[in-house]
Specification:
4 copies of one chain form a homotetramer. By secondary structure, chain A is mainly alpha-helical. The first copy, chain A, has one domain: Metal-sensitive repressor, helix protomer (Methane Monooxygenase Hydroxylase, Chain G, domain 1). Chain A is about 80% helix and about 0% strand. Chain A has 3 helices and no strands. In chain A, about 30% of the residues are buried. The interface between A and C is medium-sized, with 22 and 22 residues. Chains A, B, C, D: InterPro entries: Metal_Tscrpt_repr, Metal_Tscrpt_repr_sf. Chains A, B, C, D: Pfam families: Trns_repr_metal. Chains A, B, C, D: It comes from Tepidibacillus fermentans.
């Protein structure tokens, strides 16, 4: 199955995903600062949980882009089963 | 309940946590590059899941440090119930 | 969007899902017995985590059946976007 | 470390946990019926996610009971480290 790159969809989706990733990068640096400053562990844990939730949102945005784009295109061209199996494997990484 | 800072424990734990956070920061930048390069979405998702797993490990390391340190100290000084309730609230952020 | 029932796929998938659900039902009763018998909490928690993992597997099996069946059929008949949005909403229930 | 049973705490907690487990058992049977009736997969998935959330709540209730009970008692009697390590292992089952 020829791997389709993500350029099937308007760039706006990518920009949104990139902005979120930039914010997550900043949050991770913020947590590093909290650890260096010996901040209270529960406050650090709360920040880690927030980054995790933000990361899940990015994951869902990429999943949505992929399903609307590559998956839909592959199904319409008769290659649905292989790409759906691949989709399930990657969803499994997030659910387990 | 007087908030105890994390300095009850040897710095080695913090160093380990900081190294992991540095690695996660690098991984997040790597994912940004993959999005900019229009890499295949499933590969991007696999990286996001890896960062999520690494983040969970950091969370558990901080949770362990907190429980062995602040929670244990508070229980020994008779302030167990309040800090345990606080512990459950933060664990809930990771489980739900 | 006309809601497609699950009969697009061979019954074997449903039988497998039903067997797993029966086993989960038994496991839940087993946990009730452990609570009644005042068994050690960590042992009870280990069983709860096992049921959770089994439930996730059932969820993935149903998700797979749905994506190979209804989602694929809707995409081929030009109704892909609506059913994909619906798919993302339900995946979100499992990821968050 | 002598395994402490859960009878350190009033039975009310156990009753609440048992009621929730009974409800979960009924929900699982309800999902079986939905599969047998070939109900729409997304509706089945929504129910599975609801049972998962209910299971997490039971897990947290047992975790809370254990931490307030056995963990607190073990820490006060100088056996904190071993039971905290055990606590982290079981929390890890729920987070990963």
């Amino acid at each position: 199955m020829e791997r389709l790159t993500g350029d099937l969809l308007p760039n706006e989706t990518d920009q949104k995903i990139l902005r979120r990733l930039k914010r997550i990068e900043g949050q991770v640096r913020g947590i590093q600062k909290m650890v260096e400053d010996k901040r209270y562990c529960v406050d650090i844990l709360t920040q880690i949980a927030a980054v995790r939730a933000a990361l899940d949102k990015v994951g869902l945005a990429v999943l949505e882009k992929h399903t609307h784009g590559c998956v839909q295109k592959a199904i319409k061209s008769g290659e649905g089963d292989a790409i759906i199996d691949e989709l399930m494997d990657v969803i499994n990484l997030f659910i387990k």
